[in-house]
TrEMBL record:
<protein>
    <recommendedName>
        <fullName>5'-nucleotidase SurE</fullName>
        <ecNumber>3.1.3.5</ecNumber>
    </recommendedName>
</protein>
<dbReference type="InterPro" id="IPR030048">
    <property type="entry name" value="SurE"/>
</dbReference>
<dbReference type="GO" id="GO:0008253">
    <property type="term" value="F:5'-nucleotidase activity"/>
</dbReference>
<feature type="binding site">
    <location>
        <position position="15"/>
    </location>
    <ligand>
        <name>a divalent metal cation</name>
    </ligand>
</feature>
<keyword id="KW-0963">Cytoplasm</keyword>
<feature type="domain" description="Survival protein SurE-like phosphatase/nucleotidase">
    <location>
        <begin position="9"/>
        <end position="192"/>
    </location>
</feature>
<feature type="binding site">
    <location>
        <position position="14"/>
    </location>
    <ligand>
        <name>a divalent metal cation</name>
    </ligand>
</feature>
<dbReference type="GO" id="GO:0000166">
    <property type="term" value="F:nucleotide binding"/>
</dbReference>
<keyword id="KW-0479">Metal-binding</keyword>
<keyword id="KW-0378">Hydrolase</keyword>
<feature type="binding site">
    <location>
        <position position="45"/>
    </location>
    <ligand>
        <name>a divalent metal cation</name>
    </ligand>
</feature>
<dbReference type="GO" id="GO:0046872">
    <property type="term" value="F:metal ion binding"/>
</dbReference>
<dbReference type="InterPro" id="IPR002828">
    <property type="entry name" value="SurE-like_Pase/nucleotidase"/>
</dbReference>
<comment type="similarity">
    <text>Belongs to the SurE nucleotidase family.</text>
</comment>
<dbReference type="InterPro" id="IPR036523">
    <property type="entry name" value="SurE-like_sf"/>
</dbReference>
<comment type="function">
    <text>Nucleotidase that shows phosphatase activity on nucleoside 5'-monophosphates.</text>
</comment>
<keyword id="KW-0547">Nucleotide-binding</keyword>
Length: 268
């Protein structure tokens, strides 16, 4: 902990340091600890864990703007600009980051994953918007007040999760807030949905990639079962998924057999 008595929070995101979601989360967390912003200078959405060899750093009124990816920001922050951080918070993202297939491509979630390899607890925070996908999503305007529920949830978890022992068995939390009418939402613990509905449609000389699940969300036709992150958002809950970062391995008898029969040097 820092001398102020609250945690020292390294705050990053993938929408860029000047995005309204980032400023909303910075304001929400400033009441519980010292917030050091180390975030991309511009929008770096959906870059996953892309990493740069060198990045430029600029002073910013909130901290530091990095000409790089969210993963760059975590490495630069924890190794150079904010090495004594107690927790990394990533967000708040415009749009939910739900579903197992989304986790690896999301810059917001990837920043939390990177923090886990430093053994620093992390929270990824996203705000669902009922905009569908494509141009409709890009045109959907949000402002700082629209991230109030996400900020409330992030503040609550940053204040309490470490002391409650959450991070003894969890590397990071993936938090998604529903779109509300201004009233507070309840919180529920979830697992990532396995529903996958990506399409690729040929159009002349190009192909358009489309994630149909966002249109399902907007229409209210989500088939995900209770207990999943996407279902929780559709039902108006704040979704919290406790996740681990390192890949896991499972004993696989069939693969053991293949390895044992692999021709050795003398048989080649």
């Amino acid at each position: 902990m820092n001398t102020s008595g609250g945690p020292r929070i390294l705050l990053t995101n993938d929408d860029g340091i000047d995005s309204p979601g980032f400023r909303a989360l910075h304001a929400a967390l400033s009441s519980v600890g010292e917030v050091v912003a180390v975030a991309p200078a511009d929008d770096r959405s959906a870059v996953g864990r892309s990493l740069s060899r060198r990045v430029d750093v600029q002073d910013h009124d909130l901290g530091y703007a990095i000409e790089g990816t969210p993963t760059d920001c975590v490495v630069v922050g924890l190794e150079s600009l904010c090495p004594d951080a107690d927790v990394v918070v990533s967000g708040c993202n415009k749009g939910a980051n739900v579903g197992a297939y989304v986790l690896g491509r999301s810059g917001t979630v990837s920043a939390a994953v990177e923090a886990a390899f430093f053994d620093v607890p992390a929270v990824a925070v996203s705000q669902y918007v009922p905009a569908g996908t494509g141009e409709a999503y890009r045109a959907f305007e949000v402002d700082e007040p629209d991230f109030a529920e996400a900020g409330r949830a992030a503040r609550y978890l940053v204040e309490r999760a470490e002391g409650a022992g959450v991070f003894e068995t969890t590397d990071y939390l993936n938090v998604n807030a529903p779109w509300t009418d201004g009233g507070p939402a309840e919180m529920t613990v979830t697992r990532p949905s396995t529903l996958y509905d990506m399409t690729a449609e040929r159009d002349g000389g190009g192909v358009t990639l489309l994630d149909r699940t966002w249109d399902r969300m907007k229409e209210g036709s989500v088939p995900d079962p209770v207990g999943t992150d996407r279902r929780a958002i559709a039902d108006g809950y704040v979704s919290v998924s406790p996740l681990t970062a390192p890949h896991t391995t499972r004993h696989h008898g069939a693969l053991d057999g293949l390895a044992e029969s692999y021709p050795g040097r003398e048989e080649e």
